[in-house]
Amino acid sequence: MAVKREDYLDWADYFMAVAFLSAQRSKDPRTQVGACIVNDENKIVGIGYNGMPRGCSDEALPWQRKNDDWLETKIPYVCHAEMNAVMNKNCASVKGCTIYVALFPCNECTKVIMQSGIKEVVYMSDTKHDKPSMVASRRLLDAVGIPYRQHIPKQSKVTIDFGALEDELDSTSTR
Ligand SMILES: O=c1[nH]c(=O)n([C@H]2C[C@H](O)[C@@H](COP(=O)(O)O)O2)cc1CO
Ligand SMILES: [Zn+2]
């Protein structure tokens, strides 16, 4: 009798992988961030990545990070992954949900997370840990007791191979 496959993706790696896959949609030349919101039934209810607001051409607005003129940077225009994931929700509310994010959320996203009722933050990268924005995020989350923890992946890499089923058919084909 065939036995169960053991090297399947566990839930947390799956949700973080969805966040990272979503990030690949981002046009930001420097930092691509993705977020995935999950309810208490392990159902995905929102996905987002950082991008320009709906209807804005990705070519019409600046993508540079620094410029003497702040209006010529992406900062005032780009919508962060977390905010997009909340706005993209496919259910009435994300209250009680967990958000998986590729990068620890900035203070603006943390406010959106808090106001939406999300109850837990799971992040992968913390490369901006010492920026005032992240310090403010932790202060806010600590103030209300929303837990945040770094994801420790069981699998360091998740590969998507569009040819996987063809290979499988080839190798198992007996006819
Ligand atoms: O929480 C976040 N979510 C998010 O989507 N982003 C996006 C905004 C920008 O497009 C990019 C950050 O760009 P940069 O690393 O050049 O500052 O990542 C950035 C953060 C944290 O800074
Ligand atoms: Zn943000």
TrEMBL record:
<feature type="active site" description="Proton donor">
    <location>
        <position position="82"/>
    </location>
</feature>
<dbReference type="GO" id="GO:0008270">
    <property type="term" value="F:zinc ion binding"/>
</dbReference>
<keyword id="KW-0479">Metal-binding</keyword>
<dbReference type="GO" id="GO:0009165">
    <property type="term" value="P:nucleotide biosynthetic process"/>
</dbReference>
<comment type="similarity">
    <text>Belongs to the cytidine and deoxycytidylate deaminase family.</text>
</comment>
<dbReference type="InterPro" id="IPR035105">
    <property type="entry name" value="Deoxycytidylate_deaminase_dom"/>
</dbReference>
<dbReference type="GO" id="GO:0004132">
    <property type="term" value="F:dCMP deaminase activity"/>
</dbReference>
<feature type="binding site">
    <location>
        <position position="106"/>
    </location>
    <ligand>
        <name>Zn(2+)</name>
    </ligand>
</feature>
<feature type="domain" description="CMP/dCMP-type deaminase">
    <location>
        <begin position="10"/>
        <end position="148"/>
    </location>
</feature>
<keyword id="KW-0378">Hydrolase</keyword>
<keyword id="KW-0545">Nucleotide biosynthesis</keyword>
<dbReference type="InterPro" id="IPR016473">
    <property type="entry name" value="dCMP_deaminase"/>
</dbReference>
<dbReference type="InterPro" id="IPR015517">
    <property type="entry name" value="dCMP_deaminase-rel"/>
</dbReference>
<dbReference type="InterPro" id="IPR016193">
    <property type="entry name" value="Cytidine_deaminase-like"/>
</dbReference>
<dbReference type="GO" id="GO:0006220">
    <property type="term" value="P:pyrimidine nucleotide metabolic process"/>
</dbReference>
<dbReference type="InterPro" id="IPR016192">
    <property type="entry name" value="APOBEC/CMP_deaminase_Zn-bd"/>
</dbReference>
<feature type="binding site">
    <location>
        <position position="80"/>
    </location>
    <ligand>
        <name>Zn(2+)</name>
    </ligand>
</feature>
<dbReference type="InterPro" id="IPR002125">
    <property type="entry name" value="CMP_dCMP_dom"/>
</dbReference>
<dbReference type="Pfam" id="PF00383">
    <property type="entry name" value="dCMP_cyt_deam_1"/>
</dbReference>
<feature type="binding site">
    <location>
        <position position="109"/>
    </location>
    <ligand>
        <name>Zn(2+)</name>
    </ligand>
</feature>
<protein>
    <recommendedName>
        <fullName>dCMP deaminase</fullName>
        <ecNumber>3.5.4.12</ecNumber>
    </recommendedName>
</protein>
<keyword id="KW-0862">Zinc</keyword>
